[in-house]
Amino acid sequence: MSSLRDDTLAYFGHQVHVMRRREVGTLLGWAGDLAGRTLLDVAGGDGYWAGQAIRRGARAVCLDLARYKLEFGQKLRGHPGLVEGDALALPFADGSFDVVMSVCAIEHFDDGAAALAEMARVLRPGGDLVMSADALTRAERWPDKLAHHRERYHVKHAYPAEALTKLLDAAGLDVERQTHMFRSQRAEWLYMTLSAKGGKAGWNAAAPLSPLVALADRRTPDDGGSVVLTHARRRA
């Protein structure tokens, strides 16, 4: 049963964040008109963002391995279908969804290529994949921060845009557009510092900096950054 407290916790946990609102807003915008379309959020935690897709008219499902997150998601108003499952072996038939979304999840998987192949498999031909991933194009400049980031968030791999594009192509997906967040060196230093020292509370506490990061991104060439956002389409 939902409660105001649970909904408030979810709002602050997801929306009051230095990057997540802009990140997922971009992805959902790229997905286009969601009215009546089926959407799967892969490794979507408590289903909060899939719930936002429902507000846009989608019929949404969230899949995650963490049962405690799914149990919390059941308490939220307007939650999507919640399924416990593995991103590397999605429990859905071929072509089940019009849209697949994945928010900064692939970097945690042992086999990113296998996960992308599964996302492509459950997409109908012509369906849209909207996803974000750690690109970390300058992170090696701060090896200690990078090591803390990998350890704290169980990051197995980074996915620079070019490498991700090749994996998507191999999975039968054509990239329509890509963009980066935290593009400048100073912004990427902030990203790595928040990751290494701030933890979840740090990402939330840094929310007032979000407009400044967005402004810096607009003023910096879109050729690298901490996070890459991608819209791809499954080939017919």
SSE inventory with pairings:
Blueprint lengths: L3 H11 L5 H12 L6 E5 L5 H8 L3 E6 L2 H7 L7 E4 L12 E6 L9 H11 E12 L8 H11 L7 H10 L2 E9 L3 H21 L4 H9 L8 E8 L2
Structure overview:
The chain is an alpha/beta fold. It is built from 9 helices and 7 strands, in the order ααβαβαββαβααβααβ. Helix 6 runs parallel beside helix 8 (185-205). The chain starts with a helix and ends with a strand. The mean pLDDT is 94.
Shape: globular
Radius of gyration: 17 Å
Unreliable sequence segments: none
The amount of helix comes to 40-55%
Distance between the termini: 42 Å
Strand ordering within the main sheet? 3-2-1-4-5-7-6
Mean pLDDT: 94
SSE order: HHEHEHEEHEHHEHHE
Strand % is 15-25%
The largest β sheet comes out as: 7 strands, mixed
Number of distinct helices: 9
**What is the SS-derived class?**
alpha/beta
Care to count the β-strands?
7
Short structural summary:
The chain is 42% helix and 21% strand.
Features:
9 helices, 7-stranded mixed β-sheet, alpha/beta, 236 residues, 7 strands, 42% helix
